[in-house]
Amino acid sequence: MAGYKEFHRRSIEDRDAFWREQARWVHWQKPCSTVLDYSRPPFAKWFVGGETNLCYNAIDRHLAARGDQKALVYISTELDEEKSFSYRELHSEVQRVAAMMQSLGVKQGDRVIIYMPMIPEACFAILACARIGAIHSVVFGGFAAASLAARIDDARPVLMVSADGGSRLGKVTLYKSLVDEAIKLAKHPPEKVLMYRRGLDAQMPVVSGRDVDWKELAATHAGASVACAWLESNEPSYILYTSGTTGHPKGVQRDVGGYAVALAASMQHIYCGKAGETMFTTSDIGWVVGHSYIIYGPLIAGMTTILYEGVPIRPDAGVWWKIVQDHKVNVMFSAPTAIRVLKKHDPAYLTKYDLSSLRHLFLAGEPLDEPTHVWISQALDKPVIDHYWQTETGWPILSAMPGVEQSRIKYGSPSFPVYGYDLRLLREAGAMDAADNEQAVVAIVPPLPPGCLSTVWGDDERFVQTYFSTFSNRQVYSTFDWGIRDPDGYYFILGRTDDVINVAGHRLGTREIEEAISMHSNIAECAVVGVADPLKGQMPLAFAVAKDTSRLGEPKGRSLLEKEVLETVDRQLGAIARPKAVHFVTLLPKTRSGKTLRRSIQALAEGRDPGDLTTIEDPAALQQIKDVLKESGA
Ligand code: PRX
What we know:
Layout: H1 2-13, H2 15-22, E1 34-40, E2 43-48, E3 51-52, H3 54-58, H4 63-66, E4 70-76, E5 81-86, H5 87-103, E6 111-115, H6 120-132, E7 135-138, H7 145-155, E8 159-163, E9 165-168, E10 171-174, H8 176-185, E11 192-196, E12 211-213, H9 214-219, E13 231-232, E14 238-242, E15 250-254, H10 257-269, E16 278-281, H11 288-300, E17 304-309, H12 319-326, E18 331-334, H13 336-343, E19 360-363, H14 370-380, E20 384-386, E21 398-399, E22 416-417, E23 422-426, E24 440-445, E25 455-456, H15 460-467, E26 477-485, E27 491-496, E28 500-503, E29 506-509, H16 510-517, E30 523-533, E31 537-546, H17 555-572, E32 582-585, H18 598-605, H19 619-631
Parallel strand pairs: 4-17, 6-7, 6-8, 8-11, 11-12, 16-17, 16-18, 18-19, 19-20, 31-32
Antiparallel strand pairs: 1-2, 3-13, 4-5, 9-10, 14-15, 15-25, 21-22, 23-24, 24-26, 26-27, 28-29, 30-31
Helix pairs in contact: 1-2, 5-6, 7-8, 10-11, 13-14, 18-19
The protein binds adenosine-5'-monophosphate-propyl ester.
């Protein structure tokens, strides 16, 4: 590991020189005066004084050498459509959307909420924001109106961009009623809503004076030319909301220059994606993986990126491998859940297509269990790289780095700390370094490297309080994950230290789900825990106390209330947050100081020992949990 070790050591010990070199992967209109300003810990400012633009690096820079190369290939197995855009075409589409946004009053620093399905126009909108220095905030299309409203109120956008609908497994979800409802709920609604009609909603309601038809406006901006705004490296590029311990999602704020450098460098050293090659990332543009590795990363590297609307098993479980063959995909990035889904299908799908172009498959977003890692590695006969990171970091924290050194893959391990991260495993009490094979908190000694969150949008205090206050004696960044390192230096991630759960790679806060459930008028209180699920990794499971219990004596009454509660979650958060079941009890297990014993509930639900119960106020509460679980056959 000499090559990797030296590379990593330099990135920490000779930080400025290391990152000055990495900064050469991107175009700077004006070079920086200082590589890192760390005068106000834990806030790190990278490439201070430098001026660049993400859209310029993703598109314009490539025009001379690869204007006719495909930049974006859109494949929808939902609507049976396929379209591609060369770098030159992408350049004109993005300029046109930038001009449309400007005509709607969007200026540098303004926020634009993008609530869209996986269509090229969503990418145009994202890149158009980057071009003019507007701050995009993409909200995953699966989120419901109330979640969207909360994000609108935090970001206070001048514009919202949406479409008439999305499709999943052949089922269309119409967006417009959600958009209208969210705007009604919001205290700081956008003045304009730009709507792209895909022809999925013939009856789409239009609010006159507010709603603008994309295609009509686009017609008046054909051939528009909009220059890139040169932004100081530390200007915000985007906000992406993510779940934490509280019920209120945090706006992860990212910069411009540090992010561009981090992504460009990762394309070289981690993903090994070269200009002219093709990358296929199966995530959604609403998640961080979509931001970094469907849109910005591959385009900054001059690659062709694939935007896929659909699921891995429709029309059949070979669809992704057919895409790899047909588009000569070199780098692929997916999530463990998808692989577990594929594992249930005929393995012949993996040998049916020519996968010779594919070098690596990267997986992230949730723990990759060893059997799945073994299965997919053998089935593909290619290195399958488990790598670990977060919305907050924007790019990998732990990974094998084949562009630096070919290291041996250990099944179930995301390998080693990535360059730039001074990663530690710290004991929860006292923040001392843990020994090999000892479970501890995965922490990063600041400054965080380029590309990581610069703050929480509009709330510097929350940034410091949330991420840098886990240990009272030391200001280090907590990932809120447990980890362990073996004597060979390989790391393993063991799960979250907080109340965040991971459902099919989607990050959710159990508190958000509890708050959603509590919106039902007959719920007094509830507890939501994540329980292990063989396919999705984890599923939320709810235990609720009803105010009026008169109907709950009968199974029919219970299932009726359960149905209503699940519908409430769908309405508040979206179906992705829907618990596996809602069990009704008359009291929840709590400590004498009133804290709900979520870990004990979770242990029981997973058939484990509930642990130390000396502080429990009423042991009967735990018995009730056991009884309802037994009754439900769990
Ligand atoms: O708990 C870790 C888990 O997902 C969390 C971050 O989720 P999100 O913000 O959605 O970002 C995903 C970016 C890939 C982490 O705190 N996680 C992510 N990757 C892994 C993982 N857990 C285990 N192994 C991984 N490879």
